[in-house]
Amino acid sequence: MNLVLQGVGDCKARLERIGALTASANLTWLGERALRCEGIAFSPALRQTLEVAAQAAQLDATYSIGLHKMSDYKLVAMDMDSTLIIIECIDEIADMQGLKAQVSEITEAAMRGELDFAASLQRRVGLLEGLDASALERVYDERLQLSPGAETMLKAVQAAGMKTLLVSGGFTFFTERLKKRLGLDYTHANELEIVDGKLTGKVVGGIVDAEEKKRTVERVCKELGISPSQAIVMGDGANDLKMMSISGMSVAFRAKPVVREQANVALNFVGLDGILPLLT
């Protein structure tokens, strides 16, 4: 087994300290903030020790069998809200109605997997009925921020020739703008119905739920002539698990516990560019 440890800021001493616990004879620095420990004699007890120590040191720890290269993958598929960007767009739109707390509570429960996603989305969108559509532009201009490391990660994978897919249970208003801004290849999201400049509280067409996210990844892979095992899929909520489950590398980014437990990679401290040291 190999283990990659990563941190933020001045973390070299912490990396060295946790790396020493692995008893690896081959430690390779992957830049100033990432250390690969190769040939670890793996055991459940050692893994638990390392994970507890890494968490306490605010380091991300990723195990792998063998080494992975950028060329092993052809597609990066990303969730949008709380993954590529730091906000939940629907919560910020609801704030324009004075309903952020109410909508955020539903969003959180849906992301933890406690509510049916499609039903919860219809309920949340319904609360937006009558809101002026200009609120969407305000959210994009005033509140939407990319997650740490997003641009660095995208530039690196695009330079390597990988295609990019943004698939979201959020809204096309935002995915289409991000597609243009970031040079993404594919996007798929829900479309909010707007009549006479106001939100109707409804979604046009089918809802992009967990199953549709999975189908979208499969569809894009088929179009590219690749296997889903050649895709890296990133997400944070329970509705991302199905698309993550078919990927070659599943990445839980600042994710809910249910997602972290099932992903190959969990990035809790470093940015989205934390996948890059894993692909060397």
UniProtKB/TrEMBL annotation:
It comes from the Bacteria. CDD domains: HAD_PSP. GO terms for molecular function: hydrolase activity. Pfam families: Hydrolase. Its EC number is 3.1.3.3. The keyword Amino-acid biosynthesis applies. Pathway: Amino-acid biosynthesis; L-serine biosynthesis; L-serine from 3-phospho-D-glycerate: step 3/3. It catalyses: O-phospho-L-serine + H2O = L-serine + phosphate; O-phospho-D-serine + H2O = D-serine + phosphate. Signal peptide: none annotated. InterPro entries: HAD-like_SerB, HAD-like_sf, HAD_sf, PSP. Its cofactor is Mg(2+). Keywords: Amino-acid biosynthesis, Hydrolase, Magnesium, Metal-binding, Serine biosynthesis. Belongs to the HAD-like hydrolase superfamily. SerB family. This is Phosphoserine phosphatase. It comes from Duganella dendranthematis. The gene is serB.
